[in-house]
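Full entry
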Amino acid sequence: MSSKNLTLTDNTTGKSVELPLLEGTLGNSTIDVKGIPGELGYFTHDPSFGTTASCESEITFIDGDKGVLLHRGYPIEQLAENSNYIETAYLLIHGELPNAEEFATFSNIIRRHTMINESLKKFFDGFRHDAHPMSMMMGVVGSLAAFYHDGLNMNDEEHLMVSAHRLISKLPTIAAACYKHSIGEPIVYPRNDLDYCENLLYMMFSVPCEDYVVSPIAAKALNLLFILHADHEQNASTSTVRLVGSTGANPFACISAGIAALWGPAHGGANEGVLTMLDEIGSVENIPKFLEKAKDKNDPFKLMGFGHRVYKNFDPRATIIRKVCYEVLEETGTQDPMFELAMKLEEIALKDEYFVERKLYPNVDFYSGVIYKALGIPVSMFTVMFALARTSGWVSHWLEMMADPNGRIGRPRQLYKGSPKRDYVSLDER
């Protein structure tokens, strides 16, 4: 906290209010505007909350101008190179990297709680075979509260942590079951001898009639993608989890709401949008035409996977994932015209003055979509994979919010632009 403050004066009435200036460890200082309505009678207006700090958090820091992303102070580059997803999840939840004993205990908890209740499997029979996996995931995750209702005392710290563990553990099993249902194959049980990403790949791609060996390349790439997607500060889905959680709702309802928010094409659906865009472009010869369409403000076509609302320079995650993208394409030896198209689009766009001047560089969604496709993961599952990775971030923010002794239910204000007060007119007089 800082002793600094600002004075806001209403030039119409001459009234003033002193507004405290709050300073965090890193980043912009924040003006505490709570006193404005009481002293001056005004609310603040910030559509999309682009300049409003909705909470205090110790989990993730982003400096979009400098391309910096820190989890609990650790640069994403260091975590991507040295850590793994489970260790990163522990870091997000507990605030520190685990020692050997803590890591072994946490890993064992996650590994041994991956199974889902047998009755839960019946939920999938109620979905059409062509239902989008995200729609199934929202419903099934929300229903977990019906199976663990005896452990949902929101005032019990142990219940909170057990719920967090359950969510991280069971999401891969649920995700794989969504995929299996969509292709008409039997749901595969998890294996405790496999790590987090290996287990997910096994449950997605193995079948009962033959042995399946998890590709180390695929597991490594998936592990990296999950680290890069684990948390990203107060984005739409994380803020949704916090807002729903502020009502005292159970954690499964909160995460289900986060999944719903993530499904939007402007958020987690962006990597799915990249593949859709590449399909629309069709071939390398069409790239110049579509780049011109992207520059035309009157044309509805958008270049998906380029630029980022937060990062004004470059997305640090994209720098990491670009290298892995090329490694996966080379090591898998997959021959697909779409990969050639994606790499050529990247090459041409990075040389185009229009995109360079506006710093519209490829972001993490551009490369993650290409990697997922190379690993054999269908487009409909892209956002599901994102949700899996982001679950550790969501539960970390939920736990942080629940631990806040000053927490209150979220209640945004509005600028009313409708009709003024008027009198009712009877039907026969209208």
